[in-house]
């Protein structure tokens, strides 16, 4: 007896070319729509992380200033790195007025880098006619810049 009967439906064993083209097209459209949003979200997150890290660096140095101020000591800013980069080496070898290193101001005695694993920049701001001396911390990649003058 013949197992093939004209009225039996043919079993489909794969995708037709049209189904494959439609599926790939939909995936391409989704990727085109989602990718820019994903990339922008990543960029925004790194900017926020840079602002947070710079703020932590700034606060550590402000804490040194406030501690010295309470003791009647002024002008206690860390030495400016020759290349302005707040590297681990600079933070471990720069001694503050109280004998601590810059690195010891931060968690784990380690200075924070930006989200791209590059050091922040540190600039001393000289005293002017109207402002006290201070400092500025910048992220050269994201453009974040924070200053402090008491």
Outline the structure in words.
This protein has one domain (17-148). It is elongated and about 95 Å long. Helices cover 40% and strands 9% of the residues. The chain has helices spanning 17-70, 88-93, and strands at residues 121-125, 134-138, 145-148. The protein contains 2 helices and 3 strands; from the N terminus they run H-H-E-E-E. It starts with 16 loop residues before the first helix and ends with a strand. The model has no long low-confidence stretch (mean pLDDT 91). Strands 1-2-3 form a 3-stranded antiparallel beta sheet, covered by helices on one side. The protein is mainly alpha-helical.
Helix run count: 2
The assigned structural class equals mainly alpha
Task: Estimate the helix proportion, in percent.
Answer: 40-55%
Largest sheet: 3 strands, antiparallel
DSSP strand (E) fraction? Answer: 5-15%
Order of helices and strands: HHEEE
Which term fits the overall shape? elongated
Widest beta sheet: strand line-up: 1-2-3
Core attributes:
150 residues; mainly alpha
């Amino acid at each position: 007896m013949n197992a093939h009967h004209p009225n039996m439906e043919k079993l489909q064993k794969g995708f037709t070319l049209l189904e494959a083209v439609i599926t790939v097209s939909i995936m391409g459209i989704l990727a085109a729509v989602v990718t820019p949003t994903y990339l922008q979200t990543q960029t925004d997150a790194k900017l926020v992380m840079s602002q947070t890290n710079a703020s932590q660096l700034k606060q550590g140095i402000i804490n040194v200033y406030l501690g010295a101020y309470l003791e009647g000591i002024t002008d206690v800013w860390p030495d400016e790195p020759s290349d302005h980069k707040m590297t681990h080496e600079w933070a471990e070898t720069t001694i503050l007025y109280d004998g601590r290193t810059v690195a010891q101001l931060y968690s784990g005695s380690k200075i924070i880098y930006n989200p791209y694993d590059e050091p922040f920049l540190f600039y001393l701001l000289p005293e002017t006619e109207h402002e006290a001396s201070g400092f500025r911390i910048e992220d050269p990649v994201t453009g974040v810049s924070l200053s402090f003058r008491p």
